[in-house]
Amino acid sequence: PGGDEGFLAAGARFTLESQGQRLAGWEWGQGPTVVLAHGWGSRASRFGALGTALVEAGFRVVAYDAPAHGDSTGRFASLPEFARALADVAGRVGPIHGLVGHSLGGFAAALAIQGGLRARARGVHRAIGQREQLQRAVRVGVGRARPRHGFDARSPGAPPGFRMETDGRPP
Fold first, then answer.
1. Mean pLDDT of all residues in 20-27
2. Average pLDDT, the chain
3. How do residues 87-144 score in pLDDT, each as one tens digit?
4. How many Å is the Cα radius of gyration of the chain?
5. Could you tell me whether strands 21-28 and 121-125 are parallel, antiparallel, or unpaired per DSSP bridges?
6. In whole angstroms, what is the distance from residue 3 CA to residue 84 CA?
7. What is the pLDDT, as a whole number, of residue 110?
8. What is the dihedral of CA 30, 55, 123, 75, to 10 degrees?
9. How far apart are CA 103 and CA 119, in angstroms?
């Protein structure tokens, strides 16, 4: 809930099929691609401040409404469906430089990475689930990453508690 509808209106809208549903997505800017994955009961517009800051920093930003959320179709959704939807979006817009997930979107990102999704930089904001499970999923999926480059809690537009890790290579 909540969000910045003006942020969505400023983006180029697209749709794609995922698991028999139509996903609504938007993109802004040019440069290395950063995909934003929202949490349960939310939608892409939630990322207005962070998305704007990323575009201003020279990134192409892609956000989408997960199945059964926002402007996407469907009545039900689950963690595996969130992860498959993220993988489908990444397949359409890739290659992916950065991936940011909030809450269930963070856990879905870890699951998608474990399933083979590649992203040079990963960010998780208030991911749900047991901390050890999330950390293990990320380690298994992407190996070890060191904080460097990108946004953290001190960066303009970053929500409180946000952390982004990268493989250390500049964009």
1. 96
2. 77
3. 999 999 989 998 988 888 988 988 898 889 988 766 655 544 444 444 443 443 333 3
4. 14
5. unpaired
6. 24
7. 86
8. -90
9. 18
Q: What is the 3-state secondary structure (H, E, C) of 2-50?
A: CCCHHHHHCCEEEEEEECCEEEEEEEECCCCEEEEECCCCCCHHHHHHH
Query: What's the token pair of residue 46?
Result: 């939630």
Distances in Å between the Cα of 14 and the Cα atoms of 53, 72, 166, 169 are 21, 11, 28, 30
Q: Which residues contact 135 (CB under 8 A, 6 or more apart)?
A: none
For 35-85, what is each residue's pLDDT tens digit?
A: 999 998 899 998 888 899 889 999 999 999 999 999 999 988 888 999 999
Helix (H) or strand (E) holding 17: strand 12-18
Q: How many CB atoms lie within 10 A of CB 169?
A: 10
- 28 closest CA partner among 8, 49, 3: 8
| Residue tagged 């440069």 (tokens) | 31
